Amino acid sequence: MAVNEPTVIRFLLASRQCELNSLRYLLGSGELVGKVSILIHHLQRERGAVHLYLCSEGPQAATELRDREQDALGSQQDVIQFLENTQIPDPSQPQASRLFSCVARVIYALGVLQDTRQQVTVRAIPLVNAAEGFNDAIRHLLSLVFTVSDPPADPVISQALIALFSFMQGKELAGQER
Asked: What is the value of pTM for the model shown?
């Protein structure tokens, strides 16, 4: 049997190209997860400052709230810029629909959160509703982390991303109980 070398080479090159694409996706996923985890942390801190602000009348709570809001807005801008500058994955990919849906929900929730912030500033929102606005945004961000962490082909990286997701989710649940 004769070996058809051009066909073999073509498939080897296609295999390498798939591996490169997978590594690029992993690199982008890792960068996104890092930015989202920082944003979640800042939103959790801002949520705590909102609680203090709405339950007190002191100027110290207002200063803390402004500082935490600025931190969260900076991280939020990093995530939004990353999403805007990231090449959209091929819609024919199996996870593309879920990923696009998660990103849309995150962007929408962060927009709604801005309205919540304005209501908090003038104390025109009950504490429960303000907390729910933050919880909602954080829940959507965690969902994005899970969706991005799901498809990687490398089991070591996949395990690390799932472990990070579990840690972030546990931290959020502990923060909500507090």
From this structure: 0.82
